[in-house]
Fold:
Amino acid sequence: MTVDHRQRHLEGIRAVISIAIFPLQYMVNLPFVAVDWADEVLTFRSNLIDENRTLRKKQQLLEVKLQKLAFFEQENRRLRSMLQSAKRDWEKVLIAELMAVDFDPFKRLVQLNKGSNEGVFDGHPILDANGIVGQVIHVGPLSSTAMLITDPSHATPVHVNRNGLRAIAMGTGEPNRLEIPHIPNSTDIQVGDLLVTSGLGLRFPLGYPVARISEIKLVPSEAYAQVYAEPTAHLERTQEVLLVWPESSTEGNR
Amino acid sequence: MHAQMKHGNGIIFTSFVIAFALTMLPLPEWAEVGRPEWITLVIIYWCLALPERIGVGVAWTAGLMLDVIHGSILGQYALTLALIAYFTLHFYQRIRIYRIWQQALVVLMLVLSEQLMIIWIKGVIDQAPESRLYWLPSLTTALLWPWTYHILRDLRRKFRVH
Structure:
């Protein structure tokens, strides 16, 4: 147990056992997949047409935004090369599905249906459409276990998007709440501020939304304010997540 | 005789598979904290019924798998389940002649001690849950003992696993 906690030698054993367990997890997951499938197959035609229409509209909007983005990306690249700063792009993505299996109720873990066969690695950042979801903690060949940012033992390095104030967002174990410790009472931070990843831990890519400040309690007698935030990603509802890879292997820049 | 032995293994294996599936089955948030320790129940039953076949080794293996399922530190459940199996094997003759509710009390004690060991381990690595609901599974597990006992006993008699 000590070896597992302190070092990472036993990951191999864990990976082997996870292969044995995968069929079981697959089996437990199956009814949920079936219900989803039936839901998809048995939709009304009118619903599909409606959905198609809204999606098309959305796509058009996104494409317009994308045109701008391409320009910004080019400009950004140029500026960075002028500054000669090391650059890490996180571009390659893979969609993984969450398997409907439960873990310890006092932790916030999820099971993904992609493993090292697909190139998932330890510490792999996971996103959804709205922000950071968590990171992979155990990898097996067929599946992997990921920790959500709300797990009590997880901390995400962030900064406030508005003014660049650096902070750490700690999980609380509650489904929709992060705690931001060590924020002095006099700090410029407001309810509604967006927290984005600062990339400081070199685990998460820079600049993805993490959470929005939801509550600030100022206690004059305490040195620090009590600051809470709500994750922007739909942690409890999400079905599919994105695994992101660095664009080219930039291990040397770490 | 040999074929019968194999046959029995199938039943025991299936009961473990079902227990693992029940351990992983998604439950609503409010029910999740009270999820019974299915694996512990099954291990206690088989240790009582077939003490010469199911013992510490099986419990340790099942515990290791449970560790991977729970994503907990490797060895946590392996150690506690092996100890549970050891205690059950030590007292199986006495527990067998108890009435069913007395057995449920024994199960309560066993699962409580299991949870106590787990919270110690988690405390050492600073992951101990603060909520008092942590102790709820021992109660639900003990309440489920009579049903588990009857179902598994009927199965065992039907398939003549000795």
Summary: The domain at 1-42+88-245 of chain A is CATH 2.40.10.340 (Thrombin, subunit H). Chain A has one domain: 1-42+88-245. The radius of gyration of chain A is 20 Å. Chain A touches chain B through 31 residues (CB under 8 Å).
